Structure formats: structure tokens, C-alpha cells
Amino acid sequence: MQKNFSQSEKPPSEMSKAKWFYYYFVLTLIGLLGIGALYLFFVMLPEGVWLLNLLIGGIALFLGWVFVKILLLPRQKGSTTFKKVQNETGYTTYFINEWTGETESVSFRYDQITDLLIGLWTNPKFKGRKNDYVGARLLYRYVEDGEMKYFETVIISEPSLDEWIETIRKHRIPARITNRNISAVKENQFDEMLETIEAEPFDGSISLKDYFMLQEDFSLWQPPSMEKGDPLS
Q: Which residues span the membrane (predicted)?
């Protein structure tokens, strides 16, 4: 992936006037409420009702803290939103700070992928019933600046899985599928898994859901190098 950083006059997404209005409206409202609570605290102070004074004083301090936090929002670092833009060869994700207009973009080309694997994913509470499996775990290996890297994601919705299948088909990504449960495989075991797991080529022409449902054994798959009976090693 290629990262670019720029201070742009026109970032992909800017803070809208409506958001700025809402920001100043909330800031003003919190400020007025805080001033009102502080005024009430000093008015009630001579009355000697200490419990009520402590309550009002606490509210005033809390509103003051909230006011300062909101006031400092435009100075915060990092992205506040992101936008993913697809293109013919891959995609670019823009990470945008709407307050400052700073934008960081990460570009990725599908032809960087050397191997992609889709397998079963289940959560720790899975009971082993075929109809209860949760989703798919997608992992791909890609080359960047001569270095092999990895990306993985868990897909639990059919529309998201369909999007990936269409991407594999459209860009002819070298993909394979396995109906083994690869939920417990760790990052330092990805290479071994890609080299040793039982998998078959996938071009998007078959239903992954139907393929997964053919599996009878939902036990966690372990790389050959792992000690038997120690799935967390």
C-alpha cells in the first residue's frame, strides 16, 4: 500500500456549514448552561445549603469540562472520517480530518495480491452446529516495496462477501477457498497456513455459503507445526 500525506485546500470531504453551525450551537449552549450553573452556585452559597451547593458546583465543573473538550475539537489530530474510492485497478482510502482539512490516502492495487484465501470463521461461543457458523475469514498476501505483507478481515454479512467475490472475479485475483475453520490461525502462522492448508481454486462461480455448508467438521484448523492439543501456541 502506498501512503501519501497532503495539506489540501479541497480535501475529499470538508466540514459542512451545517456541522459548523451545530458545533457552535452546542458550544454556546454548554457555555451558557455552565455560566448559569456557576452563577446559581454563588447565589446559593450564602444560604448555607451545602449539599445543594456541592451538587450545583459539580454540575458547573462538569459543564466547564465538556465546554473545554468541545472547544479543543478543531485542534484534534488524526482522521475524523474516511472515504473509500474504487477505481479500475484497486482502491484509495482517504482518511480525513474534517477540522483541519488534512488528508492521508492509502492506495492499493489488486495486482499486488499474490495469494488470497477464504475460510470459515466462528466466534469463541460457537457451539459446533452447522447452521450457526458465523462467517468467513478472508486473508490475502501482497507485495509492497519488495516486502511480503498480509491483510485479513472477517466477513459476517452476505452483501460484503458478495462484493469480495465480485472483486475476485472482475480482477482475476488468485484466490482459493477452504471449508476448514481458520478462526484461530495467528499472523505469524499465515505463511504456513497458505502453504499447507487443504484448499481449492476459487473464481467466484460457486456459492461460498453452500460450499461451507458441506463441511461437517467445524473444529479449529491448526498448522502442522503447532503442537497437538495446544491451539493457542
A: 21-44, 50-73
Number of domains in the chain: 2
Residue 221 maps to a domain: no
In terms of Cβ atoms closer than 10 Å to its own Cβ (0-12, 13-18, 19+), residue 91 is middle
Same-domain pairing of 66 and 140: no
How many whole angstroms separate alpha carbon 193 and alpha carbon 209? 22
**Residue 190 one-letter amino acid:** F
154 CB-near residues (< 8 Å, 6+ apart):
121, 135, 136, 137, 138
Model pLDDT for residues 180-222, shown as the tens digit of each residue: 888 888 888 888 898 889 888 988 888 877 787 777 777 788 8
Q: Is the dihedral of CA 197, 203, 209, 214 positive or negative?
A: negative
- The C-alpha atoms of residue 72 and residue 17 are separated, in whole angstroms, by 18
Whether 164 maps to a domain, the answer reads yes
**Which element (helix H / strand E) includes 26?**
helix 17-44
pTM: 0.59
Asked if the model's pLDDT at residue 140 lies above 80, the reply is: yes
